[in-house]
């Protein structure tokens, strides 16, 4: 049986190593609370792509673009012109590794009633049951309206 390393293109291994080194360097530069939520997603031409696991973290990284570019030029010799930041939940992100999940959006009582009504009018039993389960998460409908 061949070792897994022999099956992987060496260029991909090299690229992954570069991304990890740049991620480590980026995290060293960023404030600790922000660092654990961001990673280098790639380099395209003269652009560094950074991913963050939530919009709030991505916004903070955008404010630090100049410092990031200066840091990477000084420490890695990269002459990049731009940083593009995107939001991409990573399965192994800090939030996932801590077991913290994003809160579920709350459904209003009215939304629950609408879902129950839709479930009654659907012939597909599985879909109707799924709508009923979703409706069960809704707040109780407001019965005191006039």
Structure write-up:
The chain has 146 residues and is α+β, with helices and mostly antiparallel strands. The protein is 53% helix and 13% strand. The chain has eight helices and three strands. The protein has helices at residues 4-7, 10-29, 32-35, 55-63, 65-76, 94-98, 109-120, 125-136, and strands at 38-44, 47-52, 82-87. The protein has a three-stranded mixed β-sheet with strand order 1-2-3. The protein is elongated. The model has no long low-confidence stretch (mean pLDDT 82).
Helix amount: 40-55%
Q: What distance separates the N and C termini?
A: 74 Å
Structural class, from helix and strand content?
Answer: alpha+beta
Mean pLDDT: 82
Total number of strands:
3
For the sheet with most strands, the description reads:
3 strands, mixed
Number of helices: 8
Radius of gyration: 23 Å
Shape: elongated
Q: Ranges with pLDDT <50 over ≥5 residues?
A: none
**Widest sheet: strand order?**
1-2-3
Percentage of β-strand residues: 5-15%
Order of helices and strands: HHHEEHHEHHH
Short description:
With 146 residues, this protein is α+β, with helices and mostly antiparallel strands. It has helices at 4-7, 10-29, 32-35, 55-63, 65-76, 94-98, 109-120, 125-136, and strands at residues 38-44, 47-52, 82-87.
């Amino acid at each position: 049986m061949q070792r897994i390393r022999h099956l992987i293109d060496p260029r991909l291994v090299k690229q992954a190593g570069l991304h990890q080194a740049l991620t480590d360097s980026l995290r060293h530069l960023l404030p600790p609370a922000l660092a654990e939520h961001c990673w280098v997603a790639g380099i395209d031409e003269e652009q560094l792509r950074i991913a963050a696991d939530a919009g709030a973290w991505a916004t903070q990284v955008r404010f630090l673009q100049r410092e990031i570019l200066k840091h990477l030029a000084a420490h890695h010799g990269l002459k990049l012109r731009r940083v593009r930041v995107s939001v991409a939940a990573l399965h192994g992100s800090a939030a996932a590794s801590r077991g913290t999940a994003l809160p579920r959006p709350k459904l209003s009582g009215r939304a629950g009633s609408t879902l129950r009504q839709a479930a009654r009018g659907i012939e597909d039993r599985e879909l109707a049951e799924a709508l009923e389960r979703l409706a069960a998460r809704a707040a109780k409908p407001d019965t005191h309206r006039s």
